[in-house]
Amino acid sequence: MTDTQEVLTRVVAGRTVADSLQEAVAAGALRAQEDGTWLRPDIDGTPSNWVREHRDASRNCRFYMGVMFTHVYRKRQVPTGCATCFKVKVVPRTLRELVALRDVSHALPYTYKCGLDAGSAYTSGLYGGYFYRHGLDAARAAYGTIRAAVDQHPKLGSDVSVFIKRGCTEYEVHCGPSDHFTFAPDQAELEAAVFTHVRLEPSKPNNRVRVQQTLTHWIKEAYRLGDDSYLDFTGGVRLYPAAVRYAPDGGAR
Hints:
Layout: H1 3-8, E1 11-12, E2 15-16, H2 17-26, E3 31-32, E4 38-40, E5 50-53, H3 61-72, E6 85-91, H4 95-107, E7 112-116, E8 127-134, H5 136-152, E9 161-166, H6 169-175, H7 187-195, E10 198-200, H8 208-224
Parallel strand pairs: 4-10
Antiparallel strand pairs: 1-2, 3-4, 5-7, 6-8, 6-9, 7-8
Helix pairs in contact: 2-3
């Protein structure tokens, strides 16, 4: 039996790895290739909910979350590849603060994403910024720098929440509190074996056009969410006319 056959016939979470990868293909998370491998596409569309900068090539979130957790582990097990992932999260309250945070993020040396939490199934709140670090000590070290940058920005400040979390929120939703995550001894070997058969399509760069498209999307979503700070970015012009309101005792107002 070849190495490829051995990996694909392993039973994980009640079914073979091959069946799990076929499910991922059907879901659009993977594309089968002629050479027998699978391509994990960059499915972050344009416009995107997020602006990202990848400054750490060792991170394979699309593989660990999009393939291993969702399909191979069937949301029953946190990937060991995510065991050391900690994030410093910033919680902007308005689009005005989100755009300010994007400027702060770009000036800091960390891998980050910032954008719309409102579009995430498991995350509460409207907006979020995430700075990715390997290990709790590294996250704690970055926290002071990020907290200071947020505090000092004239459109943010000390009232904006900043805290440290572990991994993706979806992991805690399905697998319990992150301080109780456990990992099987053979997980790392399994994930490495599956990864040899998966190729990651390069992420699209944050060029000026793409960032502007995302900002336009943020403006539309801010309007939908009732956040009038979007007017900062439209010259004070409403996206759509306000509805006429009628007084209950007669007339319009």
